[in-house]
Amino acid sequence: MAHILVLAEISRHGHVADSARGLLALASRLGDPIAVVATREPLADDLIARLGSLGATQVYQAQSEQADTALVAPQVEALAAAVATLNPAAVLLSHSFDGREAAARLAVRTGSGVLVDAIDVRTEDGRIIASGSVYGGNYLVDSTTTGMPIITVRPGAIDESAPAASAQVISETVTVDAAKAGMIDSYNDAPEVSVRPELLGAKKVVSGGRGFGSKENFAMVEELADALGAAVGASRAAVDAGYSPQTTQVGQTGVSVSPDLYIALGISGAIQHRAGMQTAKTIVAINKDADAPIFDVADFGIVGDVFTIVPQLIETIKSRSA
Amino acid sequence: MRIVVLVKQVPDTADVRRLDVNNGLLDRDAGEPIVDEINERALEVALRYKDEHKAAEVVVLSMGPENAIKSIRKALSMGADSGVHVVDESLAGADALLTSLAISRALEQTRFDLVIAGNESTDGNGGIVPAMLSERLGVPLLGFLANVEITEAQVSGERQGDDGTVNVHAGLPAIMTVTERFDYARFPNFKGIMTAKRKPVETVTLAELGLDAAEVSSLDRTEVISTAERPARAAGTKIEDDGNAAATLVEFLATNRLV
Ligand SMILES: Cc1cc2nc3c(=O)[nH]c(=O)nc-3n(C[C@H](O)[C@H](O)[C@H](O)COP(=O)(O)OP(=O)(O)OC[C@H]3O[C@@H](n4cnc5c(N)ncnc54)[C@H](O)[C@@H]3O)c2cc1C
Ligand SMILES: Nc1ncnc2c1ncn2[C@@H]1O[C@H](COP(=O)(O)O)[C@@H](O)[C@H]1O
């Protein structure tokens, strides 16, 4: 069976990134999934077991002195070495910050085309095809490449998992040319997030916009999200105003979500916001302006004041579940 | 210090953008062509450096069709000193691999201490051209920055990560990309608009970059196989809040098993 390489990102705290599950699931559809890891020390047994449980039949561990200090370059060297040894039919990476830079740099090394931000992949007539959701989900575009494809996959897009395997380890050493890499000085960890679900891949999302007027008022969005077990999102205007962190921005230049339920509160529904949420199954909007464009895509719209309605919603939902 | 800002002309995200379902290519008539907003923010970083260091030179470089000159002029009117326009018929519909090849050659000819690009373009959402340039040119990339400090010798800043941010640095020459954490750009003023017309813009073709058709066609290519338009969403129920809207909404959610 054809080898399919997956870049498994390892967080600096030593966890396998969430993206690995979906990537290995897609890889197992296309062939034999092999996880590639750049690491300073040999991987701990539990990490190898974890990658196996996610479907990796082999783990290609490329050890590099610079794995913790050089930006992305160790991952590129690891992938380039694995491609040279294993001659894969495709390489899959997350469309994350590190993932796409690694994909781009690998593509120059191997002279390959990159298919970006895929939400699905398949094999057809011997060719590997990636599907993308383009222009805010208005188009579904299938594409392929003339040589070995390098594919970045949208975080949170894949629900399935690969059958568990027991992973064999291949160890290599790679060297990084530090003069050609950005260098990592230190980390600023994100504040420990609550039990709230992650926005990417969430089944329910409650988003707030500039209509809330202040960070204090925006807490109402979070309260409703918690009552529903939903993730919190925001418009760019709410992020720009500092009501919510940048990582919560939904839209053209933020994240794209396709949840079962999307609730837009005090959000006008600019085309760039809709680009990130209009593929949700059910959309609910509350806005005091009856002409707000968000109502054009809402399955259920309420013309009214968020400061009146949201507290009532929280109370009603809480009393139902009590 | 010579700073090159990479500016891509894209269809305005405020307009409805269309793909031709027959070939998957952008319908150039749908969406006013403008400078991608993220590239204006990139230019602003360069212009602020120039405000502080009068000797600095800011060059804008764009690869695109004839009418991309409009975006180069806009950047010149905001304060850039000169422009480079990479334009060639065989670059129409170029993918990232080819785009990065052409731009990397143009950057070698133009020379630079620092290249500033956007983290991703709004018409492709790739975010891969700058990393390809870094690999082709053999210079470090600091991508997805939230802020930056530029000195004569190095560039440093905070890079966005999946669980927090990372403090990074690189010696010059280097490439950096900005995210929306950077400020909106200044508007062109009257003097800027008047002088922009006289500022030099160099036009370069593939041949002038030392690339021939054979080399271009030997590259692996990405190909669109099919393009399907998703049916537009229809608006559903809309009610005025009469005091009971919250209760009605919870009923709606319950009926649809969403609560
Ligand atoms: C290149 C580019 C990329 C962009 N990317 C994104 C993106 O990724 N995501 C994004 O969201 N935007 C994006 N934008 C910005 C977008 O154009 C809008 O400016 C933004 O979405 C507006 O946010 P908003 O709806 O919160 O604010 P506004 O447009 O100001 O709307 C606020 C809404 O709240 C309503 N309101 C006010 N008070 C109340 C109340 N008490 N009760 C009920 N309703 C109330 C108002 O009627 C109004 O409709 C982008 C723009 C550009 C140019
Ligand atoms: N054709 C182009 N001309 C100039 N700059 C470009 C071009 N394509 C990409 N870039 C630069 O690379 C950044 C990321 O683009 P992309 O990889 O296409 O998402 C853009 O914001 C630009 O700064």
Automatic annotation (TrEMBL), chain A:
What assembly does the database describe for this protein? Heterodimer of an alpha and a beta subunit.
Q: Which organism is it from?
A: Rhodoglobus aureus
Q: What does this protein do?
A: The electron transfer flavoprotein serves as a specific electron acceptor for other dehydrogenases. It transfers the electrons to the main respiratory chain via ETF-ubiquinone oxidoreductase (ETF dehydrogenase).
Q: Where is the Electron transfer flavoprotein alpha/beta-subunit N-terminal domain?
A: 4-190
Q: Which PANTHER family match?
A: ELECTRON TRANSFER FLAVOPROTEIN ALPHA, ELECTRON TRANSFER FLAVOPROTEIN SUBUNIT ALPHA, MITOCHONDRIAL
InterPro entries, per the entry: DHS-like_NAD/FAD-binding_dom, ETF_a/b_N, ETF_a/FixB, ETF_asu_C, ETF_asu_C_CS, Rossmann-like_a/b/a_fold
Annotated protein name in UniProt = Electron transfer flavoprotein subunit alpha/FixB family protein
**What cofactor does its activity depend on?**
FAD
Q: Which UniProt keywords apply?
A: Electron transport, FAD, Flavoprotein, Transport
Keyword Flavoprotein listed? The answer is: yes
Q: Which family does it belong to?
A: Belongs to the ETF alpha-subunit/FixB family.
Automatic annotation (TrEMBL), chain B:
Q: Which controlled-vocabulary keywords does the entry list?
A: Electron transport, Transport
Q: SUPFAM superfamilies of this UniProt entry?
A: Adenine nucleotide alpha hydrolases-like
Needed cofactors: FAD
**Subunit-structure text:** Heterodimer of an alpha and a beta subunit.
UniProt family annotation: Belongs to the ETF beta-subunit/FixA family.
Biological role: The electron transfer flavoprotein serves as a specific electron acceptor for other dehydrogenases. It transfers the electrons to the main respiratory chain via ETF-ubiquinone oxidoreductase (ETF dehydrogenase).
Q: What is this protein called?
A: Electron transfer flavoprotein subunit beta
